[in-house]
Amino acid sequence: MEVSNPNCDLAPCIEVPLPRSVLELLERICAERSQPPPDAELRRKLASAGEDEALRVLRTIADCKTKIKSLHGFVTYLLRQQPPPPSLSSPSRSPVPENSRPSSSPGTFANSQGANGAQMEALGELEFRKQFLILNYIGRNELQSVTTAEEIRSLKNLSMVQFEKQVWQRFGEKYVDQEDRRIYHDWDSGKTHIYRCHVSPEGSFRFKGPYLEKPKKHLQKVLGDDNVLMVKFAEEEAERFSIGSRDHYYAGYSKICREGILVGLRRYCFFVFKDGGKEEKKKDPTSSPVKCFFIRIHSDACIDQNVSYILSGRTISEARKLFMHAHTVSSVSNYMIRFSLILSNTLSLKIDLSSVNIDIIEDEYCQDESGNPIYRDGKPLIYTDGTGFISEDLALLCPKNLEKWKRINDNNIEIMHNQDGHVENVAEMGHHGTETLEPPMLIQFRMFNKGRAVKGTFLVNKKLEPKTIKIRHSMVKVEPDRKLLINQTSDSLEIVGTRCLQYQPISLHELQLVCIAVSLPIHPKSLSY
Q1: Would the keyword Transmembrane helix turn up in this protein's UniProt record (predicted)?
Q2: Quick check: 143 and 107 in contact, CB under 8 A?
Q3: What span, in angstroms and rounded, lies between the C-alpha atoms of 316 and 327?
């Protein structure tokens, strides 16, 4: 089953939440005009219109002296007659509907700031990390209330170290806590720049960062660090808020996800999310464990004009197809789970996948003594689940003993980079001197190729021809859309972790993988599933 719209409403009968002000006025109209309670479709229309527009429509109805035959029909008619939004100095060329106004920084759902102003124009002349640092250090203040265009331009040519110092002294010390200060002496070291936005239950924004970190996600590698904004929504405390206010916050959050966030003169829109689960919740109990990633879809900033950008002219749907054809998954619930594969912290293997022979091979299933398939929860157990093969020459390009990024400290990462560089140099030399090298035995990876997304583990098979990869059906998480095979995709083999078994103790599962590699018989009952 193809999923054409992952954001579609799967439960039309579920009551759609509305802001308290809209809900109270709607209930009053129904009571005074003897109208039936609003159905889900009417509530959706009002929620989609936004609080201001919904209130305008309902107030018009409340002031109307004539008899109302159909509240639903009257609301629909008035929504179609809505006035055009005030024009901006630079019209948007983004895929966002023209009648939607993006939320801006800093601000609230009810008070969106336009992109006008000499200060904003001056801000757009700085490189983005400098723009973001200013927005961080002014806290929840409006830019035009704390500085001038001339002051912003006077900081333009400072080095990042000097720029941070000056901006902190002028703004940071006054408006934010010390913990929000970003002091680095290696701004140009090539580390990943992480840009974060925290959204409060009331809808105000706080930009934090940029943070410099070693790991990089596939999403950041393709788009660039400054084109990705990580957004976290605060969780309201149950005892503080009523159901009506909760509906208001939900409507506000939905508005942000629909219309995007303005960071200076750049607009970022929702792209993908990942649930960090209990571990993420432990780090920050006051915010949701879900991390949302917004991407830049449009910019009026001077620094971005006449600069090539891979997403220029693309809709969000087209941008997602650049990474994988996730619209082909079997259910809406799986859409974001599969698409979030681009959020793993990985090391890119520097190979051209078009030059690699990629074969899909069948899985092997667990059998009992009589040769019958073994089932669990109605599904057959797969002996080779998630495990394929890679040729030795490709495996030699991988770093040895690369643990998952979250367990690596800076020193280990440096070692990993040195190893990776060493292996690549050896590969460039051909076969000379490779006799003493041993590739990692196990390679955990993500692969994106022509719309297909693959996840699993590679075992090194020295019998394979050079530049060969064999993947199993159980490893393919997203199938390509045959109608889109001529479209551009961002293909890459991403390494999550590696393991050299001769140096480390191995688990029972890893022993199973080794036995698969050397074709040793293992009875299914001896394995821990």
Answers
A1: no
A2: no
A3: 12
Eight-class DSSP state of 98: T
| pLDDT digit string, tens, across residues 488-522 | 899 999 999 998 765 555 555 555 655 555 444 44
Q: How confident is the model at residue 88 (pLDDT cuts 50, 70, 90)?
A: very low
AA identity, residue 517: A
Q: Residue 12 has what pLDDT?
A: 37
Tokens coding 142: 């409006």
Instruction: Domain ranges for the chain, please list them.
Output: 20-80, 118-313, 346-526
Angle between helices 243-259 and 20-32 (to 10 degrees): 120
By C-alpha distance, which of 234, 246, 249 is closest to 287?
234
Q: Percentage of residues in the chain with pLDDT exceeding 70?
A: 75
Cis peptide before 210 (omega within 30 of 0): yes
Residue 137: both structure tokens together: 């250090």
> What is the edge-to-edge ordering of all strands in the sheet holding 205-213?
205-213, 192-199, 228-233, 290-299, 266-275, 261-263
DSSP 344-393: SEEEE----GGGSEEEEE---B-B-TTSPBPEETTEEPBTTTTEEEE-HH
Relative to beta strand 468-472, strand 357-361 is parallel
Do the bridges between strand 345-348 and strand 261-263 make them parallel or antiparallel, or are there none, so unpaired? unpaired
- Whether 353 contacts 505, CB under 8 Å: no
pLDDT for residue 511: 54
What are the tokens at 117? 């102003």
Q: How far apart are the first and last CA of the chain?
A: 30
CB contact set of 132 (below 8 Å; sequence gap of 6+): 195, 207, 209, 210, 226, 263
Tokens of 154: 């006077």
The DSSP call for residue 86 is P
Tell which residue, 195, 181, 261, 279, has the closest CA to residue 230: 195
User: pTM, whole model, 2 decimals?
Assistant: 0.71
The number of CA neighbours under 13 Å toward the Cβ of 246 is 10
Q: Taking a C-beta distance cutoff of 8 angstroms, is the pair 206, 139 a contact?
A: yes
Question: How many Cα atoms sit within 13 Å of 394 on the Cβ side?
Answer: 30
For 65-191, list the strands marked E by DSSP: none
